Every structure is written in structure tokens, then in C-alpha cells.
Amino acid sequence: MAVATTLNITRASERVHLAQSSVSEQIQALESDLGTSLFDRSRRGLKLTAAGQRLLDYANDLLDLADEARSAVADASGTVAGRLTVGGLETLCSTRLPALLAEFHRRHPDVELNLRADDSSGLRAGVTSGALDVSFHFGAVPAAAPELRSEQVAVEELVTIMPANHRLAGYSAITPDDLADEAFLVTQPRLRL
Questions:
Q1: Which of 124, 130, 113 is nearest to 149 (CA)?
Q2: Is the Cα torsion angle 152, 133, 18, 48 positive or negative in sign?
Q3: How are beta strands 111-117 and 45-48 bridged, if at all?
Q4: Which tens digits make up the pLDDT trace of 92-146?
């Protein structure tokens, strides 16, 4: 499913935490078992064949059914189990979420946790499509996304770093208006291949 949804072996292997060679071998083994190609391979990348698309439809249903079965068994045994896919901004995935998810896992060891980093629009799209169960990012959900609900879970302090001789260097607090005409250094956006 990871290869089918990303159409990229590298991104799929990152998503499922396996080496690219392992993902390629699993795809080849599945194609051999089914006796058909699931992907058209070209210099422009991967594309699902008609058989691959049919299998993807069933794979989604099977995973949903597996989750439903796990939940039913967990309900009967009184434990919390299943799969939880959490999304977050890259900065939150590397700083805030590891401790939170480790504590969640300690309390609910039968829940399979998956963490995905993305930008804010990708996170919103992931929750809307059902690819993510929950996402963590800065700011409220835009008014243009009324199908989503947001809740503040923490307040993050923002810090500005500037030269000692900068006009704002002596301020004890800086407002957005103070920064309106300032030049910023920002991280480069990730390229999506």
C-alpha cells in the first residue's frame, strides 16, 4: 500500500521503515505470487497497473477489516488495541512527539503507532482523507476546513534570534507587527519527488 499510495519506492520504504531493497523484494514476491505486474515501471516513475489498482482497493478493505477485528478482540478483552497513525510537523516529530508517543505506547502497548511528518496542508489532507487519525501542528484549523476540528494541547514559545546590534535586540517581547518588515531566514521546503 505504501508503494501504491506514494508511487515511489524511496518514500514508501521511509514510510514503512524498511530498506528500499526490502520493499522492492516484497513487491516482486507479491507480483510473482499473483502472477501479474502491479506497477508499470518507467523512467518517469511508477504507475499502478489495472491489477495493482484492484489489489489496492482490496488491500484498503483488508486493512480496515483487520483493524476492526483487532478492536473487537480488544473490546472483548478490555484492552486498548489497534492502529493509530499520527501526523506532525517535522519540528514536532523530532522534538515534542517522541516523548508523548513513548508515554502513549507505555500505557497502550497493543496499539500500533505510526508517525508521519508533513507540512500543515499535508497534515490537514491526511486527516480529511483518513490517512491520519490525528495531527499536531501550529495554529488552528483554517476556516476553509470546516470538516476538521482542532484543539489546543500546548502553547509553544517562539524565540527570535538576531544580531546583538539589531534594532529589536533589547526588546523583552516582540509582536508580529514588530517583525512585519524584517527579513527572515527560513528552512528550504522539502522537494516531493
A1: 124
A2: negative
A3: unpaired
A4: 888 888 999 999 999 988 888 998 998 888 888 888 888 899 999 887 767 767 7
Average pLDDT, the chain: 84
Inter-helix orientation angle 9-16/20-34, to 10°: 100
Question: What pLDDT does residue 192 have?
Answer: 45
**Residue whose entry in the numeric block shows the C-alpha cell 499502478:** 48
pLDDT at 189 over 80: no
CA-closest candidate to residue 136, choices 190, 84, 92? 92
The 10s digit of each residue's pLDDT in 39-67 is 998 888 899 999 999 998 898 888 888 87
* Dihedral sign of CA atoms 25, 28, 29, 30 in order: positive
Closest CA to 168 of 156, 157, 181: 181
User: Starting from the edge strand earliest in sequence, which strands make up the sheet with 82-88, in order?
Assistant: 111-117, 82-88, 134-136
Question: Who contacts 80 (Cβ-Cβ below 8 Å, separation ≥6)?
Answer: 74, 108, 110, 111
In whole angstroms, how far apart are CA 57 and each of 32, 34, 50, 156?
Answer: 19, 15, 11, 41
Tally the residues of the chain. 193
Residue 24, Cβ neighbours under 10 Å: how many? 15
**pTM score over 0.85:** no
DSSP letter, residue 172: S
| CA–CA distance, 119 with 21 (Å, rounded to integer) | 28
